Amino acid sequence: MAEANTRRRARGGGGAARRAERTAVRIETAKYIERNIPNFEILNEEALEIIENNAETVLEEIGVNFVDNPAALERWRDAGADIDGERVRIPRGLARELIKTAPSHFTQHARNPEKSVVIGGRNMVLAPVYGPPFVRDAQGGRRYATMDDFNKFVKLAYMSKWLHHSGGTVCEPTDIPVNKRHLDMLKAHMTLSDKPFMGSVTDPSRAQDSVEMCEILFGKEFVQENTVMTSLTNINSPMTFDDVMMGSLEVYARNNQACIISPFIVGGAMAPVSVAGTLTQVLAEVMAGVAYSQIIRPGAPAIFGAFVTSIDMNSGAPTFGTPEAAHITYGAGQLARRLNLPYRSAGSFCGSKLPDAQAAYETANSLNMGLLSGVNFMLHSCGWLEGGLVADFEKFVMDADQLGVLHSLAKGVAYDENAQAMDAIREVGPGGHYLGCAHTQANFKESFWKSEVLDYKPYETWQEEGARDTRALATARVEHLLANYQQPQMDPDTAAALEAYIAEKKASMPDAFA
């Protein structure tokens, strides 16, 4: 377990020091998950080969659009693609060949080196919800997000033991001008936390600002030689790459920063209703996007993304935690591994308006499929509500707590001498109990996962304490974490340089709210 640099230290020695040690606020972050369990593979070899062949046919015969981006069209032409207007047709095998230079795994460095993460292989990195314009809590209800809300979510992510990553746009702070809010959001991630974070993708210039702020934080040479940001590049499914997202991808790839190449698909609306058809489109879109990143800079880190939901055919609303979404998530994981790319998918997905039973069922389904499908980077792992329109404070800590279950499941089953527990079985014998035996006493502290939110007390105690439901318990958890937050230290010169950069950038342009 890593401990924050801001841990309180006593000034005296002896008993005072020991008392300070016991009462200090400890900010622990679990290491990223290293799976010791098998991935669930839902597709057989025949199905995989059919989908891969069909995806190559899509790229070669149908093609993809790169809109409002003449430079991208020229790059594709130089790489060997056929260009017809804004349509790019990629000869069979070309995208797959270009993808070979993308790394199978990479390290994203945090400013606290103990919290750097390795994305790829059998690892899984957990990051919070991304993008909601609204927030909700038990006191204020549903409302537009503000910068104060954003800062609170960054603090909660920093304080949450099972989260490895600070994320990106954990909510959209609507009280800050659109053209300037990325500066405040990045500053929050850089100063209020010391975990890894994501860069801005809403405009290529904002991606460049993200790179330049990281050069202040990490040093220019370090940024060019190492990955310090991950960014989310959504594809406008079906098969359209817009100039804003591609412009941001170009900035990040050129500067050796990681891009999640992720189709954004609601099955039945933006892709076929069938699982195999959707997987074909997902694979074709990802291959085109990752290949383009390698045209920009061979070796630039890229992540195979799959954000796929089904649709309620009565209302047109997206649905989450469904078996069809699980089938696609499992299958996309297999396709990503065959391309030797890190995989992003799953999260705390739900369509519920409140952190209620529907939210819990759908979220549990989504989180578990993420673990079993081999996801390496799980964006939206906590806080997601209302189909991604809302970042909910109570659900954030409820989900973050449940991420501990994924850590425990991923360990697999130990079978060493201690785990076999033969000494305990011999000691207790028929008719006894294990509560007081030596093996239990030696192992009980680490044997079982323990929730920091849920209530396991007897009914009478629960009633005496106010008969609180899970949401009320989560409200108390939010208040506890924020009350005990301690900002990680930063070099004063670095902090001043960031402030100066942001002030200069904001002064260089008028406010824009569109």
TrEMBL record:
One of its GO terms (biological process) is methanogenesis. Pfam families: MTTB (PF06253). Signal peptide: none annotated. GO terms for molecular function: methyltransferase activity. Keywords: Methyltransferase, Transferase. The keyword Acetylation does not apply. Residues 1-21 are annotated as: Disordered. This is Methyltransferase. It comes from the Bacteria. Coiled coil: none annotated. Its EC number is 2.1.1.-. InterPro entries: MttB-like_sf, MTTB_MeTrfase. It comes from Ruegeria atlantica. It is an enzyme of class 2 (transferase).
